[in-house]
Amino acid sequence: MGFDSSYFIEAERELDTIRMRNRRTAERRIEEINEKCPDTAALRKELAGTSAKLIGIITERPDNAGERIAELERENLSLQERLKISLVKHGYPEDYLAPVYSCRICRDTGIVDDKRCSCFMDIVKRKAAEHLNSVTPLKLCGFEEFSLAYYDDTRPTELGPTARKIMAKNLEDCKRYAEDFHLPYKSLLMRGKTGLGKTHLSLSIASAVIDRGYSVIYGSVPDLMRRLDREKFEGGETLDMLNTADLLILDDLGAEIDSKMYVSMLYSMINTRINASLPMVINTNLSPAELEKKYDERIASRLLTMEELLFVGSDVRVKKSAEQS
Hints:
By secondary structure, the chain is α/β, with parallel strands linked by helices. 58% of the residues lie in helices and 10% in strands.
């Protein structure tokens, strides 16, 4: 199943905008060099003139065309080198006047070897992810809104340090995860009781990763399983998006109803992403023993080999509600 054609249309529009922006950047650079570096501008103009000379030779077809073309090639290479030296002398990169491309593979055409370039498909994936997130309860938040004041710092937990120290480390680990995010990348398993900030920090990761231009899909496992169940009969693209988004955030794993079909869909999705080295952030209230009991060994082993963040403390939502009452 492929992506809806509407996402390709939106991607073409975005690519048009990218091309226009890059052309304007190149034009501004030329204007800047013309104004500030007349000697460099003269070299650029002379280099551009070699193209007109080449067209003249091809049109006229003189007897010594081959010799003249070879001479013109030598002149062109010499001018290119002199232009680079001149740019560097004036403090610019040697390729400052080269065409500007966001993707050097397809040169912003969106096509390479008669196929869609990966840069174009990345835009399609992002557009599809934006649509899916728009119909799910995605409410992005930031790390700066995460308050450690709700976690006790007076007595040690069963893990040793106080709840606040453990959660402070979780906060820093999540910030670092978002700042260092790239593909391929590791997955995170956030585990702990309800109301300890798993959703907040995972959505903060989502917000930061989206800001860096990656496609992110967030959804609660119960909602996504119901959607996938419907699309088995109606047709849809949710599974494709879950399998290909740069980052997939699965919230509330374990809250979905017990179903062999759901377990099969979950395993397929998790396994597909792991095999493709595509990261996930998965939140659950279940302990390792409960994960192993609810899911078969294949899923539990996949989950329990992820980098784990343990969430501790008392329900933050209860404390916030008490403050407001």
